[in-house]
Fold these 2 entries.
Entry 1:
Amino acid sequence: MAFFRSLQDSAFTDWFLGSDSIWTYPTVLTLHTVGMAMLVGASIVVHLRVLHVGSGFPIERLRTLYNIIWTGFAINLISGVVLFVTEAADRAVDPVFYVKLGSIGLALWSGVVVKRRVIDRVKVPLGAGGTTRLLSLGSLGLWTVAIVAGRLMAYLKK
Amino acid sequence: MAGFSTWLESTAISKALFGLSWLWPACESLHFLGLCILIGCAGLLDLRLMGFFRGVAIRDVKAFMPWGIAGFCVNLATGALFLIMQPHLYLTSGVWWSKVGFIAMAGLNALFFETRLSGSALALAPDAEMPPALKIVGALSLFSWFAVLYCGRMLPYLGTGN
């Protein structure tokens, strides 16, 4: 906890939040939104396809979208760590933050399982098509939870 | 515009909506969700027109567009609510008008595609080389939507919005 407090009270945080430049906080926040659009946008397309939207779209071509998903995730992991540092002590005790992290983790996990089942087709009982669709539906719900939690965090700032 | 903004903010409907403390964050959440659906589905078509996903028929990519348009409608509705609740943040902001400009650019570009290019695009063989006009329309669309996102997110920092 003392460590998180020292991050939040660091000279970096003062500079990052206090600077008048648009290249510090505003730009990192915008990158976090761009990453979200890539990560969640591409995930939504994947899961809609699994749920039979655009059923003419060859399902194995969804593979390409995972490049966008992981690129968006990398952008948001890096920008997210920077944003976390500046409010580390507050977020470490913020349950909404853990809801956001948990739902992102589960949404990514279900995205990976969906990919292994319907794209890679590695030794999975494909009679379980219903389960895959359930995973996709769950993933869409989890991304919604992550977005709502992320937005609410802005209102719980100290 | 400042006068209209002051009038709108003084109306009973504006005050009543802004008085609902949950409405603003709820609209923000929906606005973010709508943007993901829109950029996901429209972006897929844009990438296809730019030449990615070669071998996939354009018809099968366009099938996601009703969802993309639904995402846009969600954002139009929630955006209208922001405007009614706090017009002074937007109507006198150059960044907000830039955002509106980029939305118009994306819209006109999509209209041009639908009316002039979509017929020949749908007739293309799935593995055909994309004609330059389609690549330009796709790239312009993708650029516009990310410019819309940029203006929206930077609104509080570049202009007077929130």
Entry 2:
Amino acid sequence: MAATPAAPTATLSMPARMSRQESIAGQIWRRFRQHRMAMFGLITIIVLFLASLFAPAIAPYDPDQVNPLARHQPPFSAGHLLGTDEIGRDVLSRLLFAGRVSLTVGFAAMLVTIIVGSLVGLCSAYYGGKIDVLLMRLTDVFLSFPTIYLLLVLAAFVRPSVLSITLIVGFTAWMEVARIVRAQFLTLKEQEFVTAARAMGSTAPRIMLRELLPNGVGPIIVAATLQVAAAILAESYISFLGYGIQPPQASWGIMLNNAQEFFTRAPWLAVFPGVAITLAVLAFNFVGDGLRDAFDPRQRMR
Amino acid sequence: MIAEFLVRRLLQMVPLLIGVSVLGFAMMHLAPGGPTALYTMNPNVTAEDVERIKEAWGLNDPLHVQYLRWVGNMFSGNFGNSFRGGAEVRGLIIERIPATLQLMGTAYLIAVVLGFFIGTLGAFRQYSVFDYLATTGALITLSIPTFWFGLMVIFIFAEQLGWIPSGGTRSLGSGGGGLLDQLHHLVAPAFVLGLVLTAQWSRYFRTSLLETKNQEYVRTAHAKGLASSEVLRYHILRNAILPIIALAGVQLPAVFSGALVAESIFGWAGMGRLFLDALTYRDYPVLMAMLMITAFLVVIGNLLADVALAIVDPRVRAV
């Protein structure tokens, strides 16, 4: 008698649960779509991503091809939509290839940030007590340094490469994520659905993976998106100062570094890479903002 | 009450400062080559010389002895001598502090005033055209790389229009160095840094005001028939200001970073400029001192913000 009513409930609850999960994703997407700026950002990111991916096919010239006869050609001149630089390299082609480096560093550094931040935050919230105090103090210590000072000191003493710059940018930005993950976990741990899951006999790892993670993932995704923007900015500044990506490899920051020298003669060299950085950073910021509203509609209603 | 709070916060500062110094010390020693990196790379310095330098600097002592000596030196204001020219690091930095504080102070002022008006207007005309333009504009401003923005300002306003000097802290030669001349040089960097901060502050003000505006006590104040202006002044603004005071402290590291960028582009002879020059020559003592001093100032700034908050808001003192 006890087992009979349980069986239909179980068969009913499975599809019900799945459709509920689907509709949550659907709701988020619907709310995200209503955010005009976020959609603009998303489309921009897709375009930038595709342009970088297919750079070899799209670029009109080899980005490193020197042409002494076509130095400092202004934009819209014959054959060079965005002009050429001091040794006749096509700016548009360089911009496309530089985007590969800038976006790669942005994404990879974000991953480093999320992994380190999540580990610190999870350990802090899960173990609590002394470990929590220690890790949160460590977070405070890292937050006490102005990021750029920390970044530059590290970058100046490490042999610059895409990998080292990625790691440096990632390792100097994990603090916010750690705090978000910790706060999320601490709040969720006390929620009723967690108690319910525990009462039903779920194990600790299962609760973490099935209950806590899906519910706490919103703010982490938002932080990750905004982190890509911050990482692109950080890389561009380090490279602009000459401590980041090294020529002949091009990133948008390196192109600006180059442009500085010919500022008065060829201002377009400084304009386009800057616009590219702004566009990429803006796109990720818009998407991050849109996602925040989509994940937490209450915040928007306020 | 305030005194007790202050003592408690000062005590909390101690582990933080110890942490900051340990991290700084570790970074110095983890760097390839350690503090003698510069000499190891120099072909004119033999291995024996490096060994002698190491002995003279006490680099062969156990690490904890070195750490304690280093911290002791810092506390007595001895940051060592610059690798370049051998000048005392302390003097080099003290010389630069006023310029940076001038720049940061002016930028903060611009940001608080402009941010307050934009944020307040946005919050009270939520979803209006103004609000839409202000929030979008703020996000765009925050997405523009500050250094590139600075370059564009120099190109347009200094090179094309000739309204502002293209860099420096004062004009060289006769007539340079007067108050007006210095202000003329300050305009562009302070404006660039100030605009970035304004974007952040207008967002903070807007969010904080929106949150406070919808509180029940505000509705109560309206319901009991108070004039809107009175509700705004005594019930909304007073409470909305609180989180913003805390943010002024939290934002400090970012302002230091922003000041460094602005100084580097406009040649403003502050601490950021000194730091970048030291970076060019891998001038270890200056770099480490700058890193420690800025972190120290950030910790102090956060403390001041907390104290200010405690003075305005009695609830904070109990925490």
